[in-house]
Amino acid sequence: MDNLQLKSLVTAEGYVELFLESSPVPDCAEDEVLIEVHAAPINPSDMGALFASADMSTAELLGSSDKPRIRAMIPESMRKAVAAREGKALACGNEGAGIVVATGNSQEAKALMGKTVAVLGGRMYSKYRINKAKTCLKLLEGTTPKEGASCFVNPLTAIGMVETMRMEGHSALVHTAAASNLGQMLQKFCINESVDLVNIVRKQEHVDLLKGIGAKYVCNTSSPNFFAHLTDVLAETKATIAFDALGGGELAGDILTAMEHALSRDAATSGPYGSTTHKQVYIYGGLDRSATKFKRSFGMSWGMGGYLLTPFLQKIGRDAANKLRQKVAAEITSTFASSYTKEVSFQELLTVEAISVIDKRATGEKYLVNPSQG
Question: pTM score, two decimals?
């Protein structure tokens, strides 16, 4: 039985190449299972590994339709950052779901035979994936691989944001690019948890989408009164922590400034160096690849830093993380449901047209790869 795996290669000539590689499927060890992968999402967190900072507008198709190969140029300014990857084909795909078709001899492994499982294990853009049985999340009876494909990155990040808010002493939060799959999950979860969430979007259709699932606070950056509206909402909710999916541009600084303006309405929280209440923005994405810019107009009690899911899970420990995984599995078709623009095979993915859509990273343009299709 042969495996087929999507790989990303940085070449000495300054290109990234995406191609399919075939290899024999090894036997399972005693505590392992073999998963036939039926669904693996392309998350923003996957794109860094896939595209290696290349300018995907330069993408061209090499090879044949049966053996496609996509090549794109990496800008000179980014080549040093990916130099360590040169000549090494990288298998990609953070998460996915499928059917267990073979197992090792341990009871834990055998118990998963024929079951639909989800995995956060890397290398998920593969027709077959061997994994430790204990790392597989068995999905509830009737859950399809497509429904369970995004069981980890987005749902656990949404939960992690709320838990981080609580652990750091905040009572409400702000989220940017909030109409995304993750944003919709976060809104539903915040409703369930009775947490005020301030959503920031850039289009009226995104406002309407979030309002349609119960959002109370949605601020549109394209509105002429965006900053005033945001400040009013922050004063009402007392949100002092934000999670920014954009990363670049001025929005992170604008959020801190609006927080400061909202807090300064209460003289009791202000001092000679501005508000004494700590304001925090965590950057967890890079949808805007420009430089992060801000003016220090928000006092001295503030912080701006990076946020990743893995350190959060390490902080709370394995037992707590497993409880969160089970919660996600129980609500994967409701609170943590994902939607996709298109489901594609490997061959359909490796086209200039599909790559150009994925590279836009636009809300409502999420692709799902089915390695077992076609």
Answer: 0.91
